[in-house]
Amino acid sequence: MPVVVVISGFLVRSLKGGSKLRTFIAIDTGKGVASVVDMVVDKLKRMGFKASWVPGSNAHLTLSFLGEIEFSKVEILASMLSKRLRGFPSFTFSTKQLGFFRHNNLPRVIWIGVENTPFLNNLHREVRVALGSLGLAAEDKFHPHITVGRMKYSPPYWKKLLATIELEEIVVPVNGVHIYESELLSEGANYRKIFSCNFEGGLVKHEF
C-alpha cells in the first residue's frame, strides 16, 4: 500500500525506491478539441472502424513520450523543465483535418492534424534539451498531432471515408506543458497530470 505524504499543500503518492511511472510530456488541448475528438470517434465507429479510441477528455498533443522512469527523476525533470520554460511566450495553434499514420496500406493511427507553428517547434526543442540534460531520450522528429484512435480494423475504402469527415478548426491556447502518468487498464489508458510547468506561475504538483 503506497505511503501518502503532504508536500506544500499537495497530496502526493510516495513511491518506493526503484518504482517507475509510465509518463509523457504533453499540451492539454482543452474542451473544444475534446468535443471534436468525441464527434470524430462517433462518426468513425458508425462507419465501421474499430480501434482503441481516445476519449475526448484524454485528448492532448504529445511533445515527448518518456516511457517508464523513476518518480524521483520525474520530479527532477519537472523542476528543470519548469525553470527552463519560465517566461516562454504563451501562444496558440489551430487544429486541421484528419490524418493518419499508415502500416501495410492500412491506417495504424488516426489523428487530428495541428498547425506546426514556430512556437510549437521551439517548445518541443526546449523539452528535448531538458530531457537530454538528464540523459533521457527524446524524439528528433516532431510531427504534432492529436491522436483519435489506434486502429484494430478499418473498412474497405477507408481513405475515402476519412475524407468525408470535415472538422471545425479549433484555436488552442498554450500557457504551459504537463507531465502525465499513463496507466494501462483493460478498458484503455488512463491519463492523469502529475506536474504542470506553466510559462507564468512556475511548477504545480498535482494530487494523484
UniProtKB/TrEMBL annotation:
Species lineage: Bacteria, Thermotogati, Thermotogota, Thermotogae, Kosmotogales
Keyword Ligase part of the UniProt annotation: yes
Organism encoding this protein: Kosmotoga olearia (strain ATCC BAA-1733 / DSM 21960 / TBF 19.5.1)
Placement of sequence motif HXTX 2: 145-148
Signal peptide: none
UniProt xrefs under Pfam families: 2_5_RNA_ligase2
Gene3D superfamilies: Cyclic phosphodiesterase
Annotated family: Belongs to the 2H phosphoesterase superfamily. ThpR family.
Annotated keywords: Hydrolase, Ligase
Coiled-coil ranges per UniProt: none
Keyword Ligase: yes
Active site (UniProt): H60 (proton donor), H145 (proton acceptor)
InterPro entries: Cyclic_Pdiesterase, RNA_CPDase
Role noted for this protein: Hydrolyzes RNA 2',3'-cyclic phosphodiester to an RNA 2'-phosphomonoester.
Protein name (record): RNA 2',3'-cyclic phosphodiesterase
EC number(s) recorded for this UniProt protein: 3.1.4.58
Catalytic activity as recorded in UniProt: a 3'-end 2',3'-cyclophospho-ribonucleotide-RNA + H2O = a 3'-end 2'-phospho-ribonucleotide-RNA + H(+)
Short motif (HXTX 1): ranges: 60-63
The organism's place on the tree of life at top rank: Bacteria
GO MF term set: 2',3'-cyclic-nucleotide 3'-phosphodiesterase activity; ligase activity; RNA 2',3'-cyclic 3'-phosphodiesterase activity
